[in-house]
Amino acid sequence: MSQSEVEPCLTVWDWLCVLRLEQYSEAFRSAGLATLRQCRNLTPDQLERMGITLPGHQRRILASLNKTHSNRKEEERDGEREKPVPKERTRFRSSASVDCEPSPLVLTTSDAPLPPVPPRSIPNCPPQRFTSPLSPSPSAQTPASPKLDRHADKAPPVHSRSQCSTSTSTSTPTHTPTHAPLHPPNLLSAQTRPQALDIQPPVHHLGSDGGGITASVSPTASHNNDINAPPLPPKAGAVPKGPPPIPHRALYYQRRWVKLDVDYLRYFDNDKEVYSKGIISTAFVTNVTSVGELKFEVVTNNRTFIFRAESEVDRKNWVTVLQDCTRGCHLRSTTNPGSTLSRDFQGYLELRGLRSKLYTVVASDKVFLYKNIEDYRLGVGITSIEMNVGNVKDTDRRGFDLTTPYRIFSFIAESEQLREQWVDAMRDAIDEALSNSEVAQQIWAEPSNSLCADCEAPQPEWAAINLCVVVCKRCAGEHRGLGPSISKVRSLKMDRKVWTEELIQVFLLLGNKRVNSFWAANVPPSEALTPLSCSEERRRFITNKYRQGKYRKYHPLYGNQRELNHALCINVQCSDVLETLSLVFCGANVNCSTGMASWPTALSLANAHSQLLQAELISHNLNTGTVRLDMHRPRHYSAPPCVSHNGFLFKTASMARAITERKAKEEFSRRWCTVNDGTFSYYESDKNSNPNGALKASEIVCLAVDAPERHGYEHTFELYSESERLYLFGTDDPDSHKEWVKSIAKSFIPASAEPLLQLAFERIGRLKCKDGLNLQTSKVGWFALVGSTLHAHLEDSQEEEIHLRKLNELSIQQDNEVLVLVERGRTLYIEGERKLDFSGWCGAIQAAAGSGGDTLSQQQLTETDIPVIVHSCIGYITQCGLASEGIYRKSGVNSRVKALCDRFRQDARSLHLREGEHQVDDVTTMLKRFFRELDEGLFTSEDASSWLSAAAIQDISKKISQFQLLLNRLPCVNKATLQALINHLYCVQRFSELNQMNLHNLAIVFGPTLFQSDGKDVNASRAIEDLIQHYTFIFEVRLTSTEPGGHFICTVYLEEKKDTAEQHVKIPGSMTAAELTCEILDRRNIQVKGKEYWNCWEVSDKEEMERPLHYQERVLPILHSIGTDSHLLIKKHLAMEAMMVYLASKVDASKHGMMKFGEERSILGLGRSSGIFHDRYFILNSDSLRMYKEVRSNCPERDWPVKNLKVYMGIKKKVRPPTCHLFICRYLCCDSQSEMREWYATFLSIQYDGNVWPQDGVQQTRVSRVLPDTRHGKVSLIPLRGSENEMRNSVAAFSQDPLAVSEPTNH
Question: Taking every annotated instance into account, which residue ranges of this chain make up the domain Rho-GAP (predicted)?
């Protein structure tokens, strides 16, 4: 069928559906254009008159018409040539026929012409035309080539019961049709197809007919299945190569699962496969007929596919559906691979695992794989990949992976440049698959929105929803670089949820043209962007345009904050959205007060007046930082000059030292002050033109906001300059004070630290700091102190928060001007360039890091939100007082208790409770006093009565549920503290045999204390008793879990197992053997000397063996695994030094040699004679320990994975080893102590990858549990180790010589 034959049957609607421009169908109908032929002479002017104004849509329509008509003319020229005349097909009689006898194959005449020759397939070239002996072409006289055989093999003969009689070749073809291949037209149809059908007919293969396998048919099965990841199918219709089919051969059928969708007939190995073995485009199917018993054939331009159903009903259903699907215009698939309209990128790609390349086509939101370009042109492929579940990433110079949930396709391109093009094309396909163009089409309905607001690139698919501009993909990337505080970038096609009807109307109302009348009112021609501008130019332009506001049209009220806010409140009540945009981005505060109680904000005011578009614009700018106002006019195309802020302030004389006393009103002088052109100036009066003094923004290093009423004027602030001068200003007007602070801060804070300006800071300024990654040079950081949180903006990093009350340590070195902050084991060094502002920072941070009041949330906290005072007391009592008789019932000495309370309230983190220095009864009394004097109480004054009521509930399950409900209502600090305290009391009562404090006794003590009552309410004690008794259920923990405060307590011995050497230690889940060793040594004040190797040992008394734990090994799992006859012991590892020397001298990590091997007999109580041990040859490598009968043996007798082995040392007497050097890993005996050390050292080296002992010694690992990381977010920090004196020395060395800190001895 030629192009000209198809063209009249194609409607304009079908054609526009292919182009995805079906919205213009009504315009074509109104113009009287119903078919594609009537549109062939359309011009751009005619399209314009029809209402098709978008240039991109016009180009797409005209390009399609040009290609269609050029192909048609080419086919008409081809049609003028003489067509080949094929000879009547040769028919064979089937040997398997049941209705007629087999007969030899004979030709009708002896000189009959040969059948037409199939096209020659040449890679990357179009197929040659068919030739015939009747054709005058000389090539018709040449014999068939091997390619002819290949094509013949692909179409085996079809035999039916009626084949013995005369029949047409259409109904019972005997070989694949070999008509001249038709060039598929470039026209598509959007005709709908039936729903997907799941069937399992076979695909034809050469063989005997008796081997045919019937297939089930399920025409109504769903197209979607739960599918596992299958392998990539081989090429479609794989047939063995060989000569043309000969008589007496029939067909083999293979069972296949077949699906029919709107565009393709696909067949799979089974119904679980995702990717097909072959696909047949329904656009190329020319005929579907029934042939023979239960068979039907699907005929394309030059191939025939034969299927066999399981029943006649199934076959009829399939034939009917396929005929309906292919009736009429055949070449009409919306993803027709032969169409020049659908393909986005195509070419050959090599698929890893296959020897040949596959022709790959990226079309819209799919990727198609074909055996070669000829199959692509014929519409017969291998499989298609849906890109909505795909992901593309580069792998090497020419390779890339297409990853789906079902398999990974690893492609190799022909060059690196082509790989980049393939990756871009497939990523575009993914975007297309995930996109929805509905919003984009609505936004583009405004003509100016069809061009990028920044570079005028066509069809922009992104938008900054708070700036109200539509931008292209490249400009959107630069908008993201501004951060969400400036530009909130969203996709028109993928972020469907954000595009409310109101937001769409805002973009349609404003449009890029009107919005740019504000944003780009003063763009110099030399700085304007084009679609070809580079990334650097885009970044510079977009930063100037939106962050700096360089090109905007200044509002007449610019610089007058109060008038801007007033104008905003008035304007949101009307429909002028552009005016609102201008006000907001010229400095109006969207969160300003309207002065009306009913509608306190501009947003509520807009909603009250039903201005939904105004409300939408304001809502997207509530958390947006206004465009940076540098308090000066742009240098180019600027509006008339205007000060950013001015007014009267009261000022004292500048000072060279910190202000320690209160300044009375009489010490202040009234001055006219201005912030203009980056300079803060103050005048004698507003009539004077010459300032009394001025501070450039670059000279201001710190701005401090004083507490109200600190000085004579109620509201004051301090300015610190580079020249070590302090300026104090004040006013009684809180609004004026706020505006001055904001304006001055904006004048000297850089753009990179602008988020700090949104905070209600008490102090803001510039400091230098050093971190763990670079000790040689200091970084400039911008810091803001807000309450007890220090916000930091360092160079090339995002904002970081340091919670000062959660610091592990805070030290100030005034001599060296270094401020050291340690949080979770991570340290930040802040340097003071100037003593004046540095001392102010130190005092402010120190005050913020201390306890701020008498409530729990105002205390110094641990990482887990437990007050440090509670955590320290619980830890000390757990270690030293669990066995103390009458604990918490006995009272301490009042003077010592009061001194402890004062020290804890002054700085809880600096006080370390130590055995011998502090008494248990003093600590317990101090803890009880802390809870009794706590503001709001532990249970909060609001919910305390509810806890008491819950304690009166009789039903236990209801009581526990009510307790859990109340627990979840507590603030996080109260909840964490309550859990830690109850967990501690739970541990105390488990030692009640020693301390005489059972549940009832503890409840009597802590009931009135925690509820702050007089003790008369029995429910208070009952509540505490219930909390302790049902602790594991209420807090949902296990007995062995490791929640804050510790749930597992064990006894550890020092050097030998005796009562005087035992220590009770809390074992958290993260504690390592090295940390346990350090804790015991610290508790006994044992100093580790240079060549001493203290270690934690697992000792089994019953087995008479011991095992040194690796220093990184977790202790808690060991405690769970050992029995009651085992214990942990801290002692020196005397052989460690020799082992380290041996490992340092080894070149190879493996070891081999002879040892004696034996296993303990299974009958308990029987001894073992020395004759049971046998000499064996062992090889120890990185994977396993292998035992051979002798050195020359090839096959090992035993093989043990090294990583799973536990190695013990010792002498088990009942085993009766032949030597005293017993190496217990299945009982291995060595001849000497040194040999046993070498084997054991090799085991440890392999199991822990050479990390046998910490490089800096076990003492240096004491902080690893407390300090798990060496980075504070993105601020790199240095962990401090050692004593306080060592830390101070390292800080001093740091300020003098940064390189000295990197030496191990300092840290």
Answer: 859-1035
